[in-house]
Amino acid sequence: MGVSDGLHPEGKRGGSKRALGLALGACGLVLVLVLMLGVHFLNVTPVVTIPQPTLPSPNAFDDFQAATEKIPAGQTKAAADALWANLKIPSYKPREKKPSEAERAELVRQYVPALEQLRKGLDHPYLEPPARSFTHTYPHFAQFRDLARVLRLEGQVRARQGDWSGAMESSLDNLHLGAKIPHGGVMIGQLVGIAIQSIGRKDTWEIAGHLSGPEARAAIQRLARIREERFPYWRTLEEEKWMVQAGLLEIMRRPDWYRQYLLAMGPGTTADWGLMLRLMATSKSTLVNEYSNYMDRSISRAKVPYAARPAPIALPTNSLVSVIVPVFEQAHFASVKSEVLNDLLLLSLALRAYQAEQGQPPRALSALVPRYLKALPEDPFAPDGKFRYRVERGRPLLYSIGPDATDDGGRPVRGKRTSADPAVRHMVEADSTGDIVAGVNIQ
Question: CA-to-CA distance for 27 and 161, rounded, in angstroms?
């Protein structure tokens, strides 16, 4: 009996198998293509525009570098520290007695060529060579701190010789150095600049009380110019963003970028296969974009006045991104606190000039304008922007309301640490309560 369609059942089954095989083959091919496209998508290195600034010529950075090369042979940070801290002097024979004034002055004389070179740089614009790699190093910052310590020592020697104007000059040179160093640099530059300004500011409160009216006026003008060179904190965040973006792109161009990225996350991560698999399933664009978005939001927040800034920005939920994002709150506070202390110093110098020339302190800070100050600085911790001031028993009391944004009537912050050093006992931190009082809370 024939088959109406002319095909044997076995032929039908064979045809079905071939069709199924072709379909499965096509599906497999599509799947392979999808996987290849997925792998390609995950491994496409994103395109990010990262500025490459033109360095000024002359650049104060080069002057400061040249100054470090003139540090006397054998004179290290330890020697300078020992002298101004009144400890043993490693470069001398071991002994217990404190260094004499002659020995302190002699060390300063040995540093004269280095300090002269540094001071040349203070007259030039400063721009840190841009950091555009995770391998970028900053050995010069430690040497800049050495010079800052010697500047402080120079100021102390001058003060002991009765040269109060010269002592203030040394301190203001330090403040100027610290104000320049953050320009064009990442977070470490901002923090080193803050540290150097702290070194320079420590002795100024006592020095200011010995200045004549004209000397105080000269110091006011110099400090006002230094304040104008402030490198905004948000610009440091911008430089930090560009450095990390460049570092990520540098890593992502390497065939073993997964391993390099994990190494950047921290020691021991390369042995975590779970992290490795998650990283391999995450596109390079996702990592760069999530980091960049977080930094852009942080930069926008840093532009808002400190007292009015929004709540801290939450870290990215993607742990592969969050681990490369520093927490900036402490650095932001340190930057603002340094500005507040400089502004309190500026006001203190103006009060000193006023009292030296008028015979008594002013009744209000507004009396300092315009004769002594072009305008009153603003307290970033205060919602109304005003520093507090009054005269108590014939003496001026000047203060910022501090990080708790509460006016405690001039009750100074009491630090968390006990120490014979008043500066340590009254150390101001982000969670401190009390006011930042001029001449009491000095760091």
Answer: 90
- Provide the strand spans (E) within 377-437: 388-392, 395-400, 436-437
pLDDT at 97: 58
**In 253-318, alpha helices (H):** 257-265, 273-280, 284-302
User: Measured between alpha carbons, how far apart are the two ends of the chain, in Å?
Assistant: 108
Concatenate the DSSP letters of all residues of 316-373 into one string: PS-HHHHTTS---HHHHHHHHHHHHHHHHHHHHHHHHHHHHHHSS--SSGGGGTTTT-
Q: Return the pLDDT at 275.
A: 72
Banded pLDDT at 279 (limits 50, 70, 90): confident
Residues 6+ apart with CB under 8 A from 157: 101, 104, 105, 108
Respond yes or no on whether the N-terminal peptide bond of residue 370 is cis (omega within 30° of 0).
Answer: yes
388 C-beta neighbours (distance < 10 Å), count:
18
Q: CA angle 184-186-191, nearest 5°?
A: 105
3-state class (DSSP) for residue 436 = strand
For 188-236, write each residue's pLDDT tens digit: 999 999 999 999 999 999 999 999 999 999 999 999 999 999 999 999 9
- CA 133 to chain centroid, in Å, comes to 18
pLDDT of residue 132: 95
Q: Where are the beta strands (DSSP E) in 178-226?
A: none
Closest CA to 219 of 172, 280, 252: 172
Put simply, whether the predicted model's pTM sits higher than 0.90 gets the answer no
Residues in the chain: 443
> Are 122 and 173 in contact, with CB atoms under 8 Å apart?
yes
- Strands of the 436-437 sheet, one edge to the other: 388-392, 395-400, 436-437
Rounded Cα–Cα distance for residues 141 and 61 (Å): 11
DSSP 310: P
